[in-house]
Amino acid sequence: MSGSRVGRKPVTIPKGVEAVIAGQELTIKGPKGKSILPIHPLVEILIDDGSIQVKINENSGYRRSGSGSKLSKSITGTTRAKIANVIHGVTNLFERKLLLVGVGYKALAKGKVLGLTLGFSHPIDFAVPEGITIECPSPTEIIVKGTDKDLVGLVASKIRAFRGPEPYKGKGIRYADEVIVRKETKKK
């Protein structure tokens, strides 16, 4: 049994990227950083000839027929996708762009702190987590970068949550590719 359709495809390791498996952890080093990925016991990782192959671990001990085989197949696909994301992250970085819309709304990156002025009575200081870099090319743009796709998305959503876009004037923090559906104000 070889796993899911996605899980069967090998992940190619690009030049300058190094992958090492130790026990149930896969360490991937690249030009932009290093990532450690925990591997599920139902999955076996084979590194050979510049590619990573994900297979179902037949000797895992707690495999069973029925739902167990379905679980094994789904985990191989998920693991393969996570490995591909980590390789992309350590070579190219992931990034999310946010835009501030509103009079007086502005952002300023100060080292490990992002300062936000969003029309509240106080400024907001957001502590940037480890492994994430934040750039502000202009006062109304925020770019969140990092090697971990999940962490980049999480940080971007936390920043957006400070003042999500409202539907009447579209004021607030939005993703660069987000479309805000505008409402009309109530009329008598």
Quick structural summary:
With 188 residues, this protein is α+β, with helices and mostly antiparallel strands. It has helices spanning 5-8, 67-92, 149-161, and strands spanning 11-12, 18-22, 25-30, 33-38, 43-48, 51-56, 94-101, 106-110, 113-117, 124-127, 132-135, 141-146, 172-175.
Describe the structure.
By secondary structure, the protein is an alpha+beta fold. It contains three helices and 13 strands. It has helices at 5-8, 67-92, 149-161, and strands at 11-12, 18-22, 25-30, 33-38, 43-48, 51-56, 94-101, 106-110, 113-117, 124-127, 132-135, 141-146, 172-175. The strands form four sheets. Strands 11-12-7-13 form a four-stranded antiparallel sheet. A three-stranded antiparallel sheet has the order 1-6-5. A three-stranded antiparallel sheet has the order 2-3-4, with helices on one face. The longest helix has 26 residues, at 67-92. It is elongated. The model has no long low-confidence stretch (mean pLDDT 90).
Mean pLDDT: 90
Strand order of the largest sheet: 11-12-7-13
Distance between the termini: 67 Å
Using the alpha-carbon principal axes, give the shape: elongated
Fold topology:
Layout: H1 5-8, E1 11-12, E2 18-22, E3 25-30, E4 33-38, E5 43-48, E6 51-56, H2 67-92, E7 94-101, E8 106-110, E9 113-117, E10 124-127, E11 132-135, E12 141-146, H3 149-161, E13 172-175
Antiparallel strand pairs: 1-6, 2-3, 3-4, 5-6, 7-12, 7-13, 8-9, 9-10, 11-12
